[in-house]
Amino acid sequence: MARIGFIGLGNMGLPMAQNLLKAGHHVEGFDVFGSAVEKLRAAGGEVAASVKVAASRADAVITMLPSGKEVREVYLDGTGVLASAQPGTLLVDSSTIDVATARDVAEAAAGRGLSVLDAPVSGGVGGARAGTLTFMVGGGEEAFAKAKPILEGMGKTIVHAGGAGNGQAAKICNNMILGVSMIAVSEAFVLAERLGLDHQKLFDIASKSSGQCWSMTSYCPVPGPVPASPANRDYQAGFTAAMMLKDLKLAQDAARVAGSATPLGAEAAALYDLYCLHGNGARDFSGIICFVRGTEMEV
Ligand code: NAD
What we know:
The chain is α/β, with parallel strands linked by helices. It folds into 2 domains: 3-164, 3-Layer(aba) Sandwich (Rossmann fold), CATH 3.40.50.720; 169-293, N-(1-d-carboxylethyl)-l-norvaline Dehydrogenase, domain 2 (Orthogonal Bundle).
């Protein structure tokens, strides 16, 4: 069992760290927010006083931070992970961040003889709690082989996507499909309403026809057809609209740099931007259907 330094104990990081404890690892956590570390202590973990302390005595360091800015800080600062980790320490960043930062951090790590994996996740807070996350991993084969048994303590599907940054590339491509498909499914259900076609009838037909997709069959944006979907609880968030907007913007930034045309991704980012500006950032992203219907136009 490994000694793991876990940095970033928020909505995702805390349950992930708790699952590592359950898997028998020793977890020493750090977060700038005091009450987060106390929850880790209550679950049987140890509390580190700083990034430096968490990184300097770990076999593996896992980070789960809000954005690329914090990842740069935590890894590249003079008292950060790269300056503090012992040679041979496994470094895994599971935050969702821009591909360029992931590759910059990997390059800086290589300069110090360390390897970092970018390993963003899909599955949300529910998946983090249940230990069923999907990890999309970018980085070297050897580091991936070392990381896999640790990641298996927090997730069910662990996929090596290729070299540094490819985990982030997979994440933003996947979420661009999700954002676009949720809007497409929402438009179809609203059109059906206006044509007098019952939600359940459309679901029964389209979920067995060529229009079927995850946004319809697992996360249907209208109440009824999929009882577990957030539409049945007034769009209380599983995955917030603000998180979806963040990922769509990351995809747009990456598309610009790569010179790849993504007009539907751009339109999805613009719609989610408006939806969030109207005060809906904390609602579930499938609530975009209210916006499409025109019932969510006021702040
Ligand atoms: P969060 O804001 O709840 O947690 C982030 C934690 O990082 C906070 O506790 C914060 O205090 C801590 N932090 C910030 N700067 C720090 C620093 N310099 N040193 C130490 N700790 C620091 O966010 P979250 O929902 O847990 O998401 C984390 C990452 O996972 C994000 O990149 C997000 O895009 C991604 N993600 C989230 C979800 C989701 O459903 N919440 C799903 C998939 C991926």
